[in-house]
Design goal:
alpha/beta, single chain, Oxidized Rhodanese, domain 1
Length: 202
């Protein structure tokens, strides 16, 4: 029988907005670049490739946020253990509203999100970098990044199948996914961006 969805996405977003700190682009720009503020970009890596990035922002895919925040999680990222203000943004401000609500409920504070997201930021003339900087991927272990750029130089890319799922093996010595396949997928897409390939990897 057909599913009956009782709560709409719009209702979820409106409830989140009522619960969190909502920043205008002007307010966000006043915070940008401060040492005590972390801008968190929740967009998919493909969006970063296509639209550009906010300089200095930390990239955290929306699907991993709660796992990266939780210090008990094996995927915890130290950036979320800092005593700073966290400003979340996505493309249009809906994912970031839900993300800020979730982070706030987990105990991360203070948190806020940018109303209108990256689209509003860009339209208002906020600083944007079109090339994805390596610093956006500070969550990756150093070895992964080193192997990534070594592979980019040699232009080695092979398709491998493991466990019934396809993924890209960057080089013969590149380590397979460890724990978080999502990280590996992003790394492959970043390699894709670096070499200016257009083929989708994941």
């Amino acid at each position: 029988m057909p599913q009956t969805i009782t709560t709409s996405v719009r209702a979820l977003v409106e409830a989140a907005i009522a619960e969190i700190d909502n920043l205008s682009v002007a307010q966000a720009r006043a915070l940008h670049g401060r040492d005590d503020v972390v801008f968190v970009d929740l967009r998919d890596i493909r969006e970063l490739q296509r639209e550009g990035v906010v300089p200095g922002a930390f990239h955290c895919p929306r699907g991993m946020l709660e796992f990266w925040i939780d210090p008990q999680s094996p995927y915890h990222k130290k950036v979320f253990a800092q005593d700073k203000t966290f400003v979340f943004f996505c493309a249009a401000g809906q994912r970031s509203a839900l993300a800020a609500q979730a982070a706030q409920r987990m105990g991360l504070k203070p948190v806020a999100h940018i109303t209108g997201g990256f689209g509003a930021w860009k339209s208002a003339g906020g600083p944007v970098e079109n090339k994805i900087p390596e610093s956006m991927f500070s969550s990756f272990p150093v070895k992964k990044k080193r192997d990534l750029f070594a592979a980019a130089k040699s232009n080695a890319l092979a398709l491998t199948t493991r466990g019934g799922k396809n993924y890209r093996s960057i080089s013969p010595n590149f380590p397979p996914p460890i724990g978080n396949g999502n990280d590996f997928c992003q790394l492959g897409l970043f390699f894709n961006a670096c070499t200016k390939r257009k083929k989708k990897i994941c």
